[in-house]
């Protein structure tokens, strides 16, 4: 029986986030309605302008629950004691305005983030427990509660949390990593490898040229030209794992038509991979979606840019495609410019992370990597002016995509 996933691409963007922001700002200036105010706040978040969000929303008596949560996110982004207190207050105002349990759970997960920053971990633990009672699928609440438990050395509690949420149907990246990290803290190496599934479900393949192209090299050269000229290219992005990097959050656009060609090609590679591993006896494989959206972004690193340890919490399968890799990286003998898979020392513990080990993959032009979205990975700075161009992607179950949009709201 075929295990193929019905994969759709994101909607092609006709405007950059900055252009759309300018249009919505002008529309709001003419007609400051609640609906237009909400749209403006959402775009300000995408443009990392937390101060403008707080100026737009703070003190208004007619905010909706989603606006109060957006305000809370903006206060948290300011990373100050005042901001944490204001974020907590905004989530408290959001709770009675919320219309559904998942919305209330999202507000509680945000409040717990503020409570943790304010040093009240007991309050945060109770808040996160309440959030997961309302919505066992809330990824942020799962991540934050497991982090608190791990910091307290409560590995039994983390494993019990996994069993409880899994029994309620949860099966997402944050839940799988919580279980793996608990086993790592207990020095149960075989269980860690079993949960992560990195060896069984990892795939590295050099893609063939897309239809109509003689070589992958000529295709990559044309794609790189479009990405480097992309109007959405900008430096750094708050709230991501990227440090000192250039990014294109939505590369699929009319200005870069070859991105669609690439993503269609990657979708076929994903389904070929899924046909091989999708029937495995593993919770990740069992969570394989029947319908999913392929979402992509572009990361361009120069001398000092890199990615910190992270997972992709809204994806089921994630990956990277290398459009351009400087020869000094592709033919090098150090970790410079490479991608590594392992466990983060600050969460798993240095000894556990060392015992698990690190798998380093050297990028090559045209190489496509695929791995479960709960796989921790990072990259290393390459120390050169030459640009390393990567298109990263997530295969997101439709329900997970809806959850992410709700969280952004």
What is the typical, i.e. mean, pLDDT? 94
Which residue ranges are poorly predicted, with pLDDT under 50 across at least 5 consecutive positions?
Answer: 405-409
Number of helical regions = 19
Principal-axis shape equals globular
| Strand tally | 13
- Level of helix content? 40-55%
Describe this structure in words.
There is one protein chain. The strands form three sheets. Strands 1, 2, 3, 5, 6, 8, 11 and 13 form an eight-stranded mixed β-sheet that branches. It is built from 19 helices and 13 strands. The protein has helices spanning 17-30, 34-46, 50-57, 65-77, 81-94, 101-117, 121-134, 139-151, 155-167, 173-185, 189-196, 198-201, 216-228, 258-277, 283-286, 327-330, 345-348, 350-356, 398-408, and strands spanning 6-9, 203-206, 234-235, 242-243, 246-248, 291-301, 306-307, 317-324, 339-341, 359-361, 367-372, 377-379, 388-397. The relative contact order is 0.13. It is an alpha+beta fold and 409 residues long. It starts with 5 loop residues before the first strand and ends with a helix. The longest helix has 20 residues, at 258-277.
